[in-house]
Amino acid sequence: NAGVTQTPKFQVLKTGQSMTLQCAQDMNHNSMYWYRQDPGMGLRLIYYSASEGTTDKGEVPNGYNVSRLNKREFSLRLESAAPSQTSVYFCAGRGAGANVLTFGAGSRLTVL
Amino acid sequence: AQRVTQPEKLLSVFKGAPVELKCNYSYSGSPELFWYVQYSRQRLQLLLRHISRESIKGFTADLNKGETSFHLKKPFAQEEDSAMYYCALSVGSGNTGKLIFGQGTTLQVKP
Q1: For residue B51, what is the nearest residue in chain A, using CA coordinates?
Q2: Are A6 and A26 in contact (CB under 8 A)?
Q3: Cα–Cα distance measured from residue B66 to residue B63, given in angstroms and rounded to the nearest whole number
Q4: Cβ–Cβ contacts within 10 Å for residue B54, how many?
Q5: CA angle at residue A84 from B42 to A21, to 5 degrees?
Q6: Which DSSP state fits B6?
Q7: Is the Cβ–Cβ distance between B33 and B90 less than 8 Å?
Q8: B9-55, pLDDT tens digit by residue?
């Protein structure tokens, strides 16, 4: 039982490059979330998806886009990466009727 | 505004000492609060939630609405408690609900 799976685990980009972080869950979660983790800033919500086909902005959405094509997958895209987007990114899922998040292992992104 | 504040970036104690990790929140609705923990090289995971009123790994947390606090306590710290701890507040309801996290506190338990 994989839970929440994120790929890639590590990525180095140059400023201006684009990339997509992938997240998939096999827990039948309705809601999915993308957070970034930065020292001294904690976890900040980038985007979330309450259900398949819907997405909403979180606290820090600028510079990101998301896509929830089906119930299992929720991807995060950086169209033109900036050094300020160097961070560890976490995907999480939440099942219906519960307020508990299940997190992926994280993706460490460095933008040079 | 909805906000979670953890005033301490780092808390360092000796093994066997009491631990209190502070968390304050700001929320106009009825709060639902959580503590999440991230051990070294492990995923972020739920430690406890206030509605369960349970003790997990010796940790407890009581919601104090008057002081808008949800401090995490343990009477005798163990070395294996060393980790990053996040306090989180649930806002919204149903599928549209989301968790807002504090800045995190690193707990270091020295032998």
Answers
A1: A99
A2: no
A3: 9
A4: 11
A5: 50
A6: -
A7: yes
A8: 999 999 999 999 999 999 988 889 999 999 998 999 999 988 777 88
